[in-house]
Automatic annotation (TrEMBL):
GO MF term (any one): DNA-binding transcription factor activity
Residues covered by the HTH gntR-type domain: 22-92
Name of protein: FadR family transcriptional regulator
Keyword Nucleus among record annotations: no
Signal peptide: none
Species this protein is from: Gordonia jinghuaiqii
PROSITE patterns: HTH_GNTR
Keywords from the UniProt entry: DNA-binding, Transcription, Transcription regulation
Keyword Transcription found: yes
């Protein structure tokens, strides 16, 4: 690592409006967080050894460990107790916001049907955006999910997870990161509820074949560049899917399924 980072205190407001100086550990955590965001530290990397970081930041071991605990609480690093390798960088996915969002939805009495409705607003729009990208690699990736991942998932009983992944990648490949984050969060909440409260057993072969035909039609439409048709098709697909999933559960409310 290069020259020590300047940890001169920065004045920050508190919740009461007063001004305080952040603790040194917070400043160290802030610098390491920025290194992760900027790509200097990437998924799977290990933080440098404690001694190197202590020298670099000119801080004590307790201060450094407090900074790492801050990052651990944010799900940005994974610390295996007793390991000699140190903290490992982990880039969080939608699950990091799904838990608090699910709790807020539960507190507000939100129905699962409302979560499904929100997904139905986002996904057809993403399908139309994806068709406009003319991104052959993206279309090929979705095709591979259909041909390989979904087929394997049906055979090993993990079709629900693979289907959620197809939905998620379709939105991510549309190119709108904000939409992908929101949809990913909603998908996490929906998937957990489907798995824990309204799962009715494995899908029959005719149902599976129908699902694959619908997915294939979406890929064919976005590959052809027909965004309007892709959006309309995916709207119908999700309406039918939600109707089937919510049958008998129309009044089911969102619950913190991680309790």
């Amino acid at each position: 690592m290069t020259k020590p980072v300047n940890l001169a205190p920065m004045m920050v407001p508190t919740t009461s409006g007063a001004i305080r100086s952040p603790k040194t550990a917070e400043l160290v955590a802030r610098t390491l967080r920025r290194m992760i965001v900027d790509g200097q530290l990437t998924e799977g990397d290990f933080l440098p050894h404690e001694a190197d970081l202590m020298t670099h930041f000119q801080v004590s071991r307790p201060t450094l460990r407090e900074a790492v605990r801050v990052l651990e609480s944010e799900r940005l690093v994974e610390v295996r107790r007793g390991s000699r390798t140190g903290a490992r960088i982990r880039i969080p996915g939608p699950e990091i916001v799904a838990r608090p969002a699910g709790l807020l939805l539960e507190l507000s009495g939100t129905k699962l049907a409302e979560v499904m409705q929100a997904r139905m607003v986002i996904e057809p729009a993403a399908a139309e955006m994806l068709a406009a990208t003319a991104n052959t690699e993206a279309f090929d990736e979705l095709q591979s999910i259909i041909d390989v991942d979904l087929k394997e998932a049906y055979e090993n009983g993990t079709l629900a997870q693979a289907s959620v992944y197809f939905h998620r990648r379709m939105i991510e490949l549309s190119g709108n990161s904000a939409m992908a984050m929101i949809a990913g969060m909603l998908n996490e909440i929906a998937e957990r509820h489907i798995a824990t409260t309204i799962h009715d057993g494995p899908m029959s072969r005719p149902q599976y074949n129908k699902l694959i035909r619908s997915y294939q039609k979406l890929v064919d439409l976005v590959r052809s560049g027909d965004g309007a048709a892709a959006s309309a098709h995916w709207q119908r697909h999700m309406e039918n899917s939600n109707k089937a999933l919510l049958a008998g559960h129309e009044a089911t409310r969102v619950r913190d399924v991680m309790e």
